[in-house]
Amino acid sequence: MFWCVGAFIVSALLFYPSLGLLLFWNILIPVAPALLVLAPGLWRNICPLATTNLLPRHLNLSKEKKLSTKQLAILNLIAVLSLYILVPLRHAVFNNNGFATASMLISMAVIGVTAGFFYEWKSVWCSGLCPIHPVEKLYGENVLFTVPNAHCDKCMRCVTACPDATPNVNPGSGVKNVYQKITAFLIIGGLPGFIWGWFHIPDQIKLTTFAEFFSVYKLPMLGLMVSLFIYSLIKIFISRKDNNKLTAFFAASGVSCYYWYRIPSLFGFGIFGSDGVLVNLRGITSVNVFPIVTVATTMFFFYWLFLRKPNKKSWLIRPEYASKRMSVKQKLSA
Q1: DSSP E strand stretches across the chain
Q2: Per residue in 194-253, pLDDT tens?
Q3: 98: containing domain
Q4: How many CB atoms lie within 10 A of CB 220?
């Protein structure tokens, strides 16, 4: 059903762009960060891209190769860099162009499906290249509940450690090689400042020069660098046992910053007026309502991610392990 919803949104982006842009950028995406905080496993189950990208494995058309730890770490680093490259382009291209947004989503699906013909289950896309996955790991470290796995009927150990079945997973979990260290540093330390900078750039309707095009990166990158500096400075003065609390603090800062700006903009009270509006309530609702709402959401996320005791829950229930015997396809590809 949710795959059909995704297909409908992509179709709307192509043929009814105003509707598609509204559904994708102003309804689906604003809900996503809160869902990743409370139930990332639910999102992992219903994500239309994930369902599409897992088709080769469900149809037994995959060669079922497994990634090494280093290969997975490189894919995770590419995912973080892709996130920081693509999100500012919303202001320049995607927020006002249904065809461009649909093309981006279709391209991601093609990459994921192609990888699925060669590699095991969720390894390349869902736990590797997906630009949302680093945010899943940052926000989803202390979930509300664990749900059954809708895709994996057997655990094939496609990645180690599995983000779906590792309790309180975060970007710093099990960091060993340099690629993992860079990835964790960029997403934990950089995301809050990046989000702050992103909300201080207006959507660009008409871009005539390269300078105008790349101007959408200026404040997000500045915010990212400042946030990374603060993160690095704090790390100097805390012990290693407090690293998880620091990660939780920056996760809470990131998602709180997002809703601090996004909630008012959804109802016409954003910094740049009509940008990102779902329902315009100007003249109907007092602007004084939104500070109360944003303070409340900030308090909630800091309680949920930073103050609340870790509950030792994973995103999804791990299915039973598959037999240790290699499948025919694995033997042929070995």
Answers
A1: 147-148, 316-317
A2: 999 999 999 986 777 788 788 899 999 999 999 999 999 999 999 888 899 999 999 999
A3: 2-333
A4: 23
Note whether 217 and 232 are within 8 A (CB): no
Three-state secondary structure call for residue 61: coil
Residue 320 in tokens = 């039973």
Pairing state between β 316-317 and 147-148: parallel
Rounded CA gap, 183 and 106, in Å? 25
Residue 209 has which token pair? 């020069």
Instruction: Determine the length of the chain.
Output: 334
Name the domain count of the chain: 1
pLDDT, position 331: 43
Stated pTM of the model = 0.92
Question: Any idea of the CA torsion for 267, 273, 277, 282, to the nearest 10 degrees?
Answer: 30
Q: Dump the DSSP string for 258-280.
A: HHHHHHHHHTT-BTTBTTT-SS-
Whose structure tokens read 């340099």? Answer: 178
pLDDT tens digits for range 310-322: 888 999 988 888 7
